[in-house]
Amino acid sequence: MKLTKTELLEVAATIYNEMIEGSSEAEIMDLLGLDAETFREARKFMLESRASQIRGKSREHVYIEYVIEQTGNIRKVDKMLKGLDVQKQYNAMVGALRLRSDILDKIITKGQDFGILHRDPQRKEIVAGVLVAEMSDKDLRRAIMGQVKALNELVSTHGEADILSLPSGPIHYGEKAVTETFERRKAPEASKTIRAKTARRHAGRRRVKETSE
């Protein structure tokens, strides 16, 4: 069965609308009276036409069409809510209200994904082990000033001293400040008995060497 250009456009539009309504391919073929091969050709033409239309649209146009369709869904939910209210089906009303809220959230999210609506960046900065995103601006300024003050005190007290001799500061801040102090450990001084034995050993080695010579 060969379709003309006009017939192909009409059939493709019908196939698209019926697929949106949830009709199966067999049901659409029966509705249009098409054989399998003609239906596949018309369906392919429909998909290519729709893809070409979408590629030619800007993000703004695609988003506006999305908003229009979702707004239609919201109106359907509103009509449903009125009927449920009359029937006093309050549990079903709660579900419908959640559905309405989800649709509105998706409209905003899609707008942000398309770059049409502004999205504030999520604050997840971690500085020196501190989650600053959870700190208010006042607390953050106080923490910075505290660190600057501690640094100034360290410089004024120790100047250009060996860095290994300086006391360590706090590792991180939180509800419980955790600090660790690192101390340089010196090797234990040798006892007098050990030093005396070592001296006698060296003296004996010198005498043996002189004798052999």
Output the helix-strand order.
Answer: HHHHHEEHEEH
Helix content: 55-70%
Report the structural category.
mainly alpha
**How confident overall, as mean pLDDT?**
76
Low confidence ranges: 174-187
The number of helical segments is 7
**Number of beta-strand segments:** 4
Characterization of this structure:
There is one protein chain. The protein is mostly helical. It has helices spanning 5-20, 25-32, 36-55, 59-86, 90-113, 137-158, 192-212, and strands at residues 126-127, 130-131, 170-172, 178-179. Helix 1 packs across helix 3 and helix 4 (59-86) runs antiparallel to helix 5.
Compact summary:
This protein has 213 residues and is mainly α. The protein has helices at residues 5-20, 25-32, 36-55, 59-86, 90-113, 137-158, 192-212, and strands spanning 126-127, 130-131, 170-172, 178-179. The strands form 2 sheets. The protein has a two-stranded antiparallel ribbon. A two-stranded antiparallel ribbon has the order 3-4.
List the helices and strands and how they pair.
Blueprint lengths: L4 H16 L4 H8 L3 H20 L3 H28 L3 H24 L12 E2 L2 E2 L5 H22 L11 E3 L5 E2 L12 H21 L1
Helix pairs in contact: 1-3, 4-5
Feature tags:
213 residues; mainly alpha; two-stranded antiparallel sheet; 7 helices; elongated
